[in-house]
C-alpha cells in the first residue's frame, strides 16, 4: 500500500515539532525525499535529519522560515522546488497558538497571528504548491487540524479552534478546485497528542490528565498516530479520497 511513497518529493512544515518529526521520519522510512521546514530550534531540525539519514532515509533542511510572512511562504515553495525538482506532497503541519489567555483577555494581535499561522499560511502554501502540482499532473495536500475545531477550543484557545475550523473549510474548497487536476486535499484532525505544544500554552500535567480522561480510548495520542494517517492519505490508499476530514483522536 505504501510503495507509491518511494521517491515522492514531500514538503513538511513544522517538521522539527512532535507531530512533524513523526511524519518526516515515517515518510523517509518509506522512501520519500523529505524537505524539512523549521522556524525555531535548528538544533532539533539537524537532529531529525541525522536520525533520518541514520536509517538510510533522505531529507534536506530548508532555510529557516517564518511562515507568517508572505514573502517567506512563497520562497519556501520555490526553495523546495529548486532542491527537489517537483512537489508531490505538501503537509501543512506547522501551527500554534499566540496569546493563550482567558478569552476575556485575548488581544486582537494574538487572534490575528493565530489565524495567520493556522489558516492563511496553509492556504497560501497550498496555493503555491497547487501551481506546480497542476503542471505536473497532480499531487496531495494534507492539512493538520485539531479537535479544537470540533469543540471551539478551550477558554484560552478559542481563537485556535476558530482558526482550525477555517482551515478545514479552506481544505474543502481546495479539494473541489483540485479534483479536476488530480490534486487531492484532505485534513487530519488530531486529538490530544503527547507533544511540547501543551507546555507552550501553559497546560499543566493535571490539565492534560483531566483532558485525557475525556477521551474514550483513555490514553493520550502519540505523534505516530497522526503520522500514519497522513502517510495513508499520501499513498495509494488515498487515491480516491479528497475533501475529507479524518479525526484521529481516540474516539474524542
Walk me through this protein's architecture.
This protein is an alpha/beta fold. It contains nine helices and seven strands. It has one domain: 3-Layer(aba) Sandwich (Rossmann fold), CATH 3.40.50.720. Helices cover 47% and strands 14% of the residues. Strands 3-2-1-4-5-6-7 form a seven-stranded parallel beta sheet, sandwiched between helices. The model has no long low-confidence stretch (mean pLDDT 95).
Proportion of strand residues = 5-15%
Mean model confidence by pLDDT = 95
Residue share in helix: 40-55%
Reported by name, the CATH topology is Rossmann fold
Which homologous superfamily in CATH is the superfamily? NAD(P)-binding Rossmann-like Domain
Low-confidence stretches: none
Strand-pairing-aware structural class: alpha/beta
For the largest sheet, list the strands in their spatial order.
3-2-1-4-5-6-7
Give the class-level CATH name.
Alpha Beta
Number of domains: 1
Helix count, DSSP H or I runs of 4 or more residues? 9
- Give the terminus-to-terminus CA distance: 27 Å
What's the alpha carbon Rg, rounded to whole Å?
17 Å
Largest sheet: 7 strands, parallel
Number of strands: 7
Helix-strand pattern, N to C? EHEHEHEHEHHEHHHE
CATH architecture: 3-Layer(aba) Sandwich
- The 3D shape can be described as globular
Amino acid at each position: 500500500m505504501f510503495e507509491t511513497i518511494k521517491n515522492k518529493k514531500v514538503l513538511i512544515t513544522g517538521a522539527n515539532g512532535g507531530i512533524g518529526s513523526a511524519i518526516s521520519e515515517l515518510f523517509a522510512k518509506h522512501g520519500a525525499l523529505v524537505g524539512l521546514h523549521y522556524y525555531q530550534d535548528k538544533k532539533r531540525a539537524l537532529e531529525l535529519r541525522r536520525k533520518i539519514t541514520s536509517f538510510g532515509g533522505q531529507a534536506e533542511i530548508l532555510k529557516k522560515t517564518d511562515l507568517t510572512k508572505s514573502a517567506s511562504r512563497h520562497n519556501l515553495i520555490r526553495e523546495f522546488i529548486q532542491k527537489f525538482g517537483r512537489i508531490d506532497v505538501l503537509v501543512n503541519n506547522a501551527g500554534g497558538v499566540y496569546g493563550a489567555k482567558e478569552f476575556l483577555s485575548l488581544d486582537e494581535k494574538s487572534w490575528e497571528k493565530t489565524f495567520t499561522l493556522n489558516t492563511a499560511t496553509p492556504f497560501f502554501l497550498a496555493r503555491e504548491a497547487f501551481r506546480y502540482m497542476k503542471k505536473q499532473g497532480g499531487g496531495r495536500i494534507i492539512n493538520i487540524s485539531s479537535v479544537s475545531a470540533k469543540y471551539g477550543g478551550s477558554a484560552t484557545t478559542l481563537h485556535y479552534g476558530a482558526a482550525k475550523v477555517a482551515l478545514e473549510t479552506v481544505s474543502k474548497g481546495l479539494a473541489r478546485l483540485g479534483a479536476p487536476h488530480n490534486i487531492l486535499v484532505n485534513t487530519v484532525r488530531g486529538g490530544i497528542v503527547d507533544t511540547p505544544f501543551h507546555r507552550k500554552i501553559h497546560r499543566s500535567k493535571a490539565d492534560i490528565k483531566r483532558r485525557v480522561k475525556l477521551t474514550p480510548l483513555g490514553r493520550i495520542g502519540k505523534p505516530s498516530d497522526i503520522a500514519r494517517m497522513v502517510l495513508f492519505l499520501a499513498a495509494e490508499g488515498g487515491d480516491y479520497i479528497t475533501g475529507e476530514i479524518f479525526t484521529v483522536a481516540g474516539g474524542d
